[in-house]
Amino acid sequence: MSNFFYQLHFYLFGLIAIASALAFVTRKGPVAAALWLVNTMFSLAALYVMLDAHFIGAIQVLVYAGAIMVVFLFVVMLLNLGHPDEISDLRGTWGRLLGGLLGLAILAQIIVLLRSPAPASLVQSEFQRAESLKDLNAVAAIAKPLFSDNLLAFELTSILLLVAIVGAVVLGKRRASA
Questions:
Q1: Which DSSP string corresponds to the chain?
Q2: Residue-range domains of the chain with CATH
Q3: What is the pTM of this model?
Q4: Distances (CA, A) of 170 to 53, 73, 94, 159, 167
Q5: What is the structure's pLDDT at 143?
Q6: What is the pLDDT of residues 73-126, one digit of tens each?
Q7: In b/e form, how buried is each residue of 79-93, taking b as 16+ CB within 10 angstroms?
């Protein structure tokens, strides 16, 4: 792919991801918000594929756009939150002020991080770590640290997700029977 078309598609998918994320946080209805989030996830997957991270792009679609969104919609439907007009949101003056301040704080952090030089030891250790994983393929490079060094965190995360799903089902059944 030529450099011009590569950059054009990269910026196009980036713009779609940002616009979809903004649409996601501004929707009142949870189903419409979920659809915008799926669009964001597909745009991010396309960006990963363009960056030659095909496995991460596939996982982005399977896990986030697929499984997590299905669980999200099940929770929304089980909880039966009612009409979106009955749900309070942060779209008033205080919500906009809070959102603006939070956005400025995040922007300030990004600027500080971009201007500060990275500690040499941190950069050196990351280079050594990348060098040790150089001979592995992409899947093995992800799986080796995930299932060796971070196995406990991985298992705890899966248990936390399971507890959240069971809790949503229990809450949904209680409201349905009441």
A1: --HHHHHHHHHHHHHHHHHHHHHHHH-SSHHHHHHHHHHHHHHHHHHHHHTT-HHHHHHIIIIIIIIIHHHHHHHHHHHT---GGGS--S-SHHHHHHHHHHHHHHHHHHHHHHHSPPPHHHHHHHHHHHHHTTTS-HHHHHHHHHHTTTHHHHHHHHHHHHHHHHHHHHHHHHHHH-
A2: 1-81 (1.20.120.1200)
A3: 0.56
A4: 39, 16, 34, 16, 5
A5: 77
A6: 777 777 766 555 555 555 677 777 887 888 888 888 878 767 777 666 666 676
A7: eeeeeeeeeeeeeee
Evaluate whether 169 touches 75 at the Cβ level (below 8 Å): no
Quickly tell me which residue has 């205080």 as its tokens. 94
